[in-house]
Specification:
Elements: E1 10-13, H1 17-28, E2 33-36, H2 52-66, H3 69-72
Parallel strand pairs: 1-2
Length: about 90
């Protein structure tokens, strides 16, 4: 076995909410677990889906990204519904 190879008891494919829970439960039961995920570990919720603060951050990021459209992909107009928080 090389340095990059490792034997595990379980391979969890898809580390969204269900896969993350399954991997954690199996690891707590004493099994060695490897998780495979091509996108976001934990699904969208920890990043911008379900957690309200993340949703607000995501909205700001989307507005910032929209400002990059004219230099990259044509024209676009984007207007926020309210002014930014002065904090």
């Amino acid at each position: 076995m090389t340095d990059r190879e490792r034997e595990v008891d379980v391979v969890v494919i898809g580390m969204g909410p269900g896969g993350e829970h399954a991997a954690g439960t199996l690891a707590q039961a004493g099994l060695s677990v490897a998780g495979v995920e091509g996108l976001l570990v934990g699904g969208e919720c920890p990043y911008w889906g379900c957690v309200p603060s993340k949703m607000m951050i995501r909205a700001g990021n989307l507005l910032a990204e929209a400002g990059r459209i004219p230099g990259m992909a044509g024209r676009a107009e984007v207007h926020a519904d309210r002014p930014p928080d002065p904090r």
